[in-house]
Design a protein that fits this description.
Layout: H1 8-19, H2 24-31, H3 35-43, H4 47-50, H5 53-67, H6 85-101, H7 106-117, E1 122-124, H8 125-132, H9 136-148, E2 153-155, E3 164-166, H10 171-197, H11 202-234
Antiparallel strand pairs: 1-3, 2-3
Helix pairs in contact: 1-5, 2-3, 6-7, 7-9, 10-11
Length: 272
């Protein structure tokens, strides 16, 4: 299983790839694994020249028996309340795949989904490493990206030494509100351009249509935003502030992916 423990068949493929002269990165791509997993596996089992699948598999089984089973902390589980563990895992995979299709880096999507499905809404970096079976560096990179685009906040409980990374219920509203401010800027710019070029000219007419389109989008989003605030009121929840009022919309505009200062860089981590 990609992202889980290496199987005997995986180790046979590693042995054959090493014999063919493939490097760790190439083997990792073939197996859909992090390069660190391959380098660690080969390094602890004879190195590139002495790696043997059967011996490596036996050694791993021996280490597992010697150390005993590892019990994951309860904070990492999303299967409380009598939930079906298999159904929860399937949902996590589907939700992460949806985020990846929307433009999120693979590892970042997995981290964000893990935070969403945790009942507390927050996890430490160590809990994310344990939950996703990846390196601390992978978690750090993903958290940095999520913090930069405002999807994750960092907090520390009194008396605790470790930061916790959290999502909250206003996440999607903030992303939505920031987008409408960008669209309004486009509408204003296009309308101004139409006036400069002349509304009766082909170029001016093109920009006028663009301005009308984005103006319509803005009005529609503003209507939905008002309906959402009214819905929150029926739930007895406080209104959510408009983050776009103080947003700097003069920077790069990304209309295809999440609102971000920098485009995402794909991280080669499998969705489990």
């Amino acid at each position: 299983m990609p992202g889980g423990r290496l199987t005997y068949q995986d180790r046979q493929r590693i042995e054959q790839a090493l014999a063919d002269g493939a490097g760790y990165a190439e083997i990792a791509r073939r197996l859909d694994r992090p390069t660190s997993t391959i380098s660690r596996e080969v390094g602890r089992n004879g190195g590139p020249g002495g790696y043997r699948a059967a011996a490596a598999h036996r050694a791993t089984a021996h280490r597992a028996r010697r150390t005993g089973p590892v019990t994951r902390p309860a904070a990492n589980q999303s299967t409380g309340y009598g939930r079906d563990a298999a159904a929860v895992q399937a949902f996590e995979q589907q939700f992460a795949a949806l985020m990846i299709q929307s433009g999120f880096p693979r590892m970042t999507a997995r981290v964000l989904v893990s935070l969403f499905v945790s009942d507390g809404g927050s996890l430490t970096a160590a809990e994310l490493v344990d939950r996703l079976r990846v390196s601390p560096a992978s978690i750090s990179k993903s958290i940095a990206f999520l913090e930069r685009i405002g999807f994750v906040s960092r907090r520390r409980e009194p008396g605790q030494r470790r930061d916790r990374y959290a999502v909250d219920d206003g996440l999607w509203y903030r992303a939505w509100s920031l987008r409408v401010h960008v669209f309004r800027t486009w509408a204003d710019a296009a309308t101004h351009g139409a006036a400069v070029l002349g509304p009766d000219t082909p170029a001016g007419d093109r920009l006028q249509l663009m301005g009308e389109f984005f103006g319509l989008v803005c009005r529609d989003v503003e209507r939905i935003t008002a309906e959402w605030q009214a819905f929150l009121s029926t739930r007895g929840l406080p209104p959510q502030p408009d983050p776009g009022a103080a947003a700097d919309v003069g920077g790069p505009i990304d209309v295809d992916g999440p609102v971000a200062a920098d485009p995402p860089t794909t991280v080669a981590e499998p969705v489990r």
